[in-house]
Amino acid sequence: MWAARRVAAIRKVHKDATGSQLSTFRSLVGRAVDTRFGNEHGFSEIRSYQDFQAKVPVRDYEQAKSWFEAMHRGEDSVMWPGKPLYLAKTSGTTSGAKYIPITRESIRYQVRAARDALFCYIHDSGNSAFLDGNMMFLSGSPTLETNAAGISEGRLSGIVNHFVPAYLRRNQVPTYQTNCIEVWEEKIERILDETIPKDLRLISGIPPWVQMYFERLRERTGKSPLENWPNLRVFVQGGVDFSPYEPVFRKFLEGKVDIVETFPASEGFFAFQDLKVSQGLLLNLDSGIFFEFVPVEEHGKPGARRLTLGEVELDKQYALVVTTNAGLWAYDIGDTVKFVSLEPHRIKVTGRVKHFISAFGEHVIVEEVNRAMIAACAFFGSEIDEFTVAPCVLPGEGNSYHDWLVEFAKSPDDLVAFADLLDTEMRRQNSYYDDLRAGGMLKPLKLRPIQRNATREYMKAMGKLGGQNKFPRLGNDRKIADWIIQNGYAEDSAK
Question: By the 8 A CB rule, do 315 and 342 touch?
């Protein structure tokens, strides 16, 4: 009954998506009129979305850093009335940790969106039996620190852990004490100690770390997940493009476990899978978030268009920009999406705006390398754990190429043919890459198999092993590739 009611309410919002977004926009601006940010940007004079665009430019964390730092110091009503309830700590790209505000309003919607994903699944599948068994949430530590201003800080998954509803907490594993373990390898072993004897029916976590959990289960017990937990029926995942992991998880889960995808972030819970069989994620319009979309080819350029829901098109790449009830204003979160449906609005997360290769003007994006890898693995019957792609810039015209470092779970019989197919798929998808190849500016890509667990060792060395951290699939430099090679996880020469 509760699931049906909530699904009906969600669908009602989507029937008037543009009207709902306009209402959210007005409410957000109205709440923040008297904040420091509101005063500095003339919120009292905003009468329309066009006024907002003129007064509030798109900014990323670095560009809005002075306001974030003021909140971190405990200043009152900087970007939202009052002080943040929490600060979600995330990994920064240029200046260390970032601290994203979470307010009383925004945390409520974070928790509700997670619940809505389960309600939609229950309503569409008819399966609620998982609520009677154990549910495992593979997350970061719920241990929070208090900064000098008296504001609690921690990872988003750890913060949300404090808000798990009572009806889920009674069957939740692992224990709070185990979740607090910071060392990832030790934490996985303790989680296995606790979960192996349980009746697990739902598992939630980011795919690479759940994959590690399943692999350690097999090593310790000699059993597959379903052999150990025959009642396992739901896997909730998100945070990365799942498509390259899907073959591995289909094998792990034997086609008997429903997979529910979500799109949570410190900045907001943006979308979730609302149908058991769906190619996209339903945009979370009932959440205190106003969405804007910048065409990727215009991203970062003067005069870049900012589109609303009523202006987006199918299958176009957009940088996601949000204004939220956590006090984020035209905030560039760094993710790229495309719409796979407009009625209702469903999206697919396609990558990161900073995760691309354009050393030669090719602008290769994550979605393209993922598709190429999926096609090659399917053709050769191969499986991967992880991979990353980096440019190799060499002197002399036509000597440079893309370097693919691949951690195979099951290697192809013919690595050269595998690399040829990857190259063909990249040329088919990306016209700029194809032109560079046809013109002899780039050589065919090179394939470099790397040792198992090499990518995890890199993440460990960077202090990012486990939790919600994601291994980058693309880089416009050789930082990751060179680390893997220099630390002996790959041969110096590529095939």
Answer: no
pLDDT of residue 95: 47
User: pLDDT by residue (tens digit) across 123-144?
Assistant: 999 999 999 999 999 888 889 9
Can you give the pLDDT at residue 92? Answer: 53
Tell me, yes or no, if the two domains 1-352 and 356-486 fold the same way.
no
- Give 194's contacts (C-beta < 8 A, 6+ positions apart): 173, 174, 175, 178
Q: Which of 330, 317, 338 is nearest to 60 (CA)?
A: 330
The DSSP result for 396-428, as a single string, is STT-BEEEEEEEEEE--S-HHHHHHHHHHHHHH
Three-class DSSP category at 43:
helix
Size of the chain in residues:
495
- CA–CA distance, 158 with 374 (Å, rounded to integer): 33
Q: How much is the average pLDDT of 409-429?
A: 95
Of the two residues 166 and 132, the one the predictor is more confident about is 132
Tell me which CATH homologous superfamily contains domain 1-352. ANL, N-terminal domain (3.40.50.12780)
Distance CA 299, CA 63 (A): 15
Look at residue 495 and tell me whether its pLDDT is greater than 80: no
Classify burial at 15, counting beta carbons within 10 Å of its beta carbon; exposed 0-12, middle 13-18, buried 19 or more.
exposed
Backbone angles phi and psi of 493, in degrees to 5: -105, 140
Give percent of the chain above pLDDT 90. 73
CATH 3.30.300, applies to 356-486: yes
Every domain of the chain and the residues it spans: 1-352, 356-486
- Chain mean pLDDT for the chain: 92
With a CB cutoff of 8 Å and minimum separation 6, the contacts of 102 are 84, 85, 86, 87, 88, 110, 156, 159, 266, 326
Residue 158: the pLDDT is: 86
What CA–CA distances, in Å, run from 237 to 139, 207, 227, 254, 294? 11, 6, 21, 17, 26
Give tens-digit pLDDT for 62-117: 999 999 999 999 999 999 999 999 999 886 544 468 999 999 999 999 999 999 99
Query: What are the structure tokens assigned to 182, written together?
Result: 């910071």
What are residue 88's phi and psi, to 5 degrees?
A: -85, 120
Q: What are phi and psi of 432, to 5 degrees?
A: -65, -45
